[in-house]
């Protein structure tokens, strides 16, 4: 059973990955625009590797999540531990979406606007992955 929620979640992951990749390519202005904080923007301006490494890890994670979403939707072959991974993706995104007050103090440079927008996006994406994963679980036979 195909769930359009997984397709939407996958597309969102790929868009988010591309935007993060844009931060690496276009530098400090993009870090600032997307609310990553002056510290990250300054490090990018100074040519330090930390912003590139951190942002690359985010790009990789979001891309893998997008691929799992496509797999769950049925566009690409089934991936290992598909239902488990999709469930974990849903949990991670939803926890990020609702848990931002607990982590805000660790990133004091990030703006409140950043936290509210990014957390809302994560919550929407997580909800899509959760609904899509539940539809997969409900759609499976007991012999599977």
Which characteristics define this entry?
144 residues, 7 helices, 76% helix, mainly alpha
Structure description:
By secondary structure, this protein is mainly α. It is built from seven helices and no strands. Helix 1 packs antiparallel against helix 4, helix 1 packs antiparallel against helix 7 and helix 5 packs antiparallel against helix 7. The two termini are 14 Å apart. The mean pLDDT is 93.
Low-confidence stretches: none
Query: Secondary-structure element order, as H and E?
Result: HHHHHHH
| β-strand number | 0
CA radius of gyration: 17 Å
Largest sheet: none
Number of DSSP helices? 7
The overall pLDDT average reads 93
Helical percent range? over 70%
Summed up:
76% of the residues lie in helices and 0% in strands.
Topology, element by element:
Elements: H1 4-26, H2 28-33, H3 38-45, H4 50-73, H5 82-98, H6 100-103, H7 112-138
Helix pairs in contact: 1-4, 1-7, 4-5, 5-7
């Amino acid at each position: 059973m195909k769930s359009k929620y997984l397709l939407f979640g996958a597309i969102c992951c790929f868009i988010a990955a591309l935007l993060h990749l844009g931060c690496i390519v276009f530098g400090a202005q993009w870090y600032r625009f997307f609310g990553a904080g002056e510290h990250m923007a300054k490090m990018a301006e100074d040519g330090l590797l930390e912003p590139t490494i951190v942002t690359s890890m985010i790009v990789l994670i979001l891309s893998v999540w997008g691929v799992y979403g496509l797999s769950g939707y049925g566009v690409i072959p089934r991936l290992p531990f598909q239902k488990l991974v999709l469930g974990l993706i849903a949990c991670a995104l939803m926890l990020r979406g609702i848990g931002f007050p607990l982590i805000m103090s660790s990133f004091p440079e990030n703006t409140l606007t950043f936290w509210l927008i990014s957390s809302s996006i994560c919550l929407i994406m997580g909800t899509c992955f959760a609904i899509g994963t539940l539809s997969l679980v409900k759609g499976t036979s007991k012999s599977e």
